[in-house]
Amino acid sequence: MMTEADYYALFDAYRKGELAGAERANLERRLAADPNFAQRYTDFEELTETLTSYGERRATRQKLKAFQAEIDAEDETVVETGYPDMPVLHISPMERKLREFWGAHRATMAVAASVAILAVFVTLLGMEWWRTSQSSSLYGYTVLRREVERIKRNQRAMDRAINQIDGSKTADAASQSKFSGTGFALTADGYLVTSYHVIQGADSLLIESRDRQHYHAEPVFTDVAHDLAILRIKDKNFNGFKRLPYSFKRGQSDLGEKVYTLGYPREDLVFNDGSLSARSGFEGDTAFYQVSIPVNPGNSGGPLLDDRGNLIGVVSGRQMDVQSAAFATKSSYLMKLVDSLAAASPEAPYTLPRTNLLAGTSRPQQIRKLQDYVFVVKVYE
Amino acid sequence: MGKGQPSYTDEEFVAAIRRGDDRALAQLYRLHLPMVTHFVLQNSGSEDEAKDVYQEGVMVFYEKVRDGSLELSCQIKTYLYAVCRRLWLKRLAEKGRFGARLDDHEPYLETGAEADLAEAQERDKRFGLMAEALEQIGEPCRSLLEGFYLLDRSMQQLTADFGYTNADNAKNQKYKCLVRLKKLFFSHYKEEESY
């Protein structure tokens, strides 16, 4: 009688093809005849088959590992460029690591770099946009201080350079003002009025009269809400203007009043006239008049006078999207400001002109008398 | 590829590997390694990962060839590329990165690699169970069975190696081991299948 162990040995021999003819035929006959016996053989076969192919798999894996190890040993310092026909590069292990890192992360790094670059440009553009939107007011309201052109500055710099080569120094060494506007005399002893936005952010101020005389000035008081600024000339050798020819109107002027202004939108004094078209300013601001005078950057701070030579306002700005709509601060607000300043410091009184020397004279005559009291206000930042 | 070895055509490779020619296998391995390395490196893998994937791929090819069941409808190169591409895709999915986007250069052909790979993975599972069962039966059973079935030693040799008094003892011991292995393996196997 055969034991289980004997059967297994028999199966083993059969699988390996070691059984001789008679025994083999005998076994095959039994397998065909006895289903139970056949099942036992199938189970046995499945197990041993798995076992042997598992063994083969292990052996193959060892073999492949050996191939790889062999290749690795050959090119310790040779990097595979990925193309068999390209020359291989001999590089250090350090560089090899870097290359691997680059290969693995270059997509991420490229994305990060583009985001960084984009962020830089967005920030720069955004800041530029914010700055420009700050300097010009909202909703089409434009203040009228003049940005002195870059060309002119360059021109002056060149002139200066040439002069220095000549050896003759000019007194006008630092005339690189950034903005300019107009101002006019408030009192005979050196107080001036201009618009607040003209001197906004100023480091120093220079007043230039029509005959090219220069005075240094300093702001005494500013009123942001009504766009007014009062300056005082601080030069030691300044000894007062002549008597002011115009007076200041304390009340309001009427619609339709003929008005005019003088100012320095260019290097020269410019006259413009029109009518008083509304008694409120931009968006209904009652501190301002609307006047139909064509004004330009540089006109800011200029005096607004009526036919009889009364000063009724200070030119401030214009509305971009409306035909010739300029705005001027009402003189009544200027007067209130001066009164409150005088009350606050009685030791430095504001002696305003009381009489009007212009009334009844013609326009050209008025202007001839006026022009010495209108100045360029130059702003240095 | 130079290196003083004869170069084979695809048919010669298959024939030589079927015969069990290790030199042919080594050369085939060497021949296509750069392609797969390049592919894996291009697709956010490391060199070690590339080697792993390539060895798996070659294994699939090798077993099909040894089996005699390989039906090659394209170049070996394309077949290997397809298998490795598939394998790497799986690895990436397991790593959970980049979804299924791949930076492909070569056209992905219908190579039958998919089916072969699925089959190989089925086999992998069985081998995994077998390895586990072999771990569990312990010594000296493991060494005995490995000696007989894996390393193809004869019973006489094993009797001597393990110090059995006669071949009958060894035979009985082997039988007991095999029964235990069978029990372990089939219990796992059936368990897996019932899922």
Concise structural overview:
The complex is a heterodimer of chains A (about 375) and B (about 200). Chain A is an alpha+beta fold and about 375 residues long. Helix content of chain A is about 40%, strand content about 25%.
Helix and strand content put the structural class of chain B at mainly alpha
Number of domains of chain A: 2
- Mean pLDDT of chain A, to the nearest integer, reads 82
Strand order of the largest sheet of chain A: 11-12-13-16-15-14
Query: Under the CATH scheme, which class of the largest domain in chain B?
Result: Mainly Alpha
- Rg measurement of chain B, Å: 21 Å
CATH architecture of the largest domain in chain B: Orthogonal Bundle
Explained architecture:
The complex is a heterodimer of chains A (381) and B (195). With 381 residues, chain A is an alpha+beta fold. Chain A is built from 8 helices and 17 strands. The N and C termini of chain A lie far apart (119 Å). Chain B has 2 domains: 10-114, Orthogonal Bundle (Rna Polymerase Sigma Factor, Chain: A), CATH 1.10.1740; 138-194. In chain B, helix 3 crosses helix 4. Chain B is elongated and about 60 Å long. The chains are: A alpha+beta (381), B mainly alpha (195). The A-B interface holds A 4-6, 8-9, 12, 43-44, 47-48, 50-61, 63-65, 67-68, 70-71, 80-84, 100, 103-105, 107 and B 1, 22, 25-26, 29-30, 33-35, 37-38, 41-42, 44-47, 51, 55, 58-59, 62-63, 66, 123, 126-127, 130-131, 145-146, 148-151, 171-172, 174-175, 178-179, 181-182, 185-186. Chain B: Residues 28-97 form the RNA polymerase sigma-70 region domain. Chain B: This is RNA polymerase sigma-70 region 2 domain-containing protein. Chain B: It comes from Hymenobacter cavernae.
Kindly list the characteristics that best describe this protein:
heterodimer; A: 381 residues; alpha+beta; Thrombin, subunit H; 2 domains; six-stranded antiparallel β-barrel; 8 helices; 40% helix; 23% strand; B: 195 residues; mainly alpha; Rna Polymerase Sigma Factor, Chain: A; transcription (chain B); sigma factor (chain B); DNA-binding (chain B)
